[in-house]
């Protein structure tokens, strides 16, 4: 199934995607495959699988970015009161050792 990231909460480690049927599905940072959670931004096109979680209902798992499917050209997003760019998030992850040097 495919869709787009509609909300992302970096501090809480989760976000929401909207599928083609306009359903909004929860995903956790552990549900991201291949890419790193902190590199996702609102508007990114994603592919995912849907499972039925006993507690939370439908949930997106195995979330992967679909190359070339970005809706917005801007990479700046508001998160709380701070303006954060994708480059600054990646830099912060590299300097803290959370993102390996091989991912550029």
How would you describe this protein?
With 104 residues, the chain is mostly beta strands. The protein has a domain at 2-72: Beta Barrel (OB fold (Dihydrolipoamide Acetyltransferase, E2P)). It has 1 helix and 7 strands, in the order βββββββα. The chain has one helix spanning 86-96; strands spanning 2-9, 14-19, 24-28, 44-53, 57-70, 76-79, 82-85. The chain has a 5-stranded antiparallel beta sheet, with no helix packed on it. The chain has a two-stranded antiparallel ribbon with strand order 6-7. The longest helix is centred in the last third of the chain and has 11 residues, at 86-96.
Number of strands: 7
CATH superfamily of the domain at 2-72: Nucleic acid-binding proteins
Q: Helix count?
A: 1
Look at the structure and give the CATH class of the domain at 2-72.
Mainly Beta
Summarize the helices and strands and which ones pair or pack.
Blueprint: E1 2-9, E2 14-19, E3 24-28, E4 44-53, E5 57-70, E6 76-79, E7 82-85, H1 86-96
Antiparallel strand pairs: 1-2, 1-4, 2-3, 4-5, 6-7
């Amino acid at each position: 199934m495919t869709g787009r990231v509609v909300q992302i909460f970096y501090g809480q480690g989760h976000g929401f995607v909207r599928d083609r049927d306009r359903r909004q599905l929860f995903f956790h940072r552990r549900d991201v495959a291949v890419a790193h959670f902190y590199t996702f931004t609102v508007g990114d096109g994603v592919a995912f699988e849907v499972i039925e979680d006993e507690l939370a209902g439908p949930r997106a798992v195995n979330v992967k970015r679909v190359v070339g499917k970005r809706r917005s050209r801007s990479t700046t997003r508001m998160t709380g009161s701070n303006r954060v760019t994708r480059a600054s998030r990646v830099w912060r992850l590299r300097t803290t050792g959370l993102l390996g040097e091989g991912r550029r």
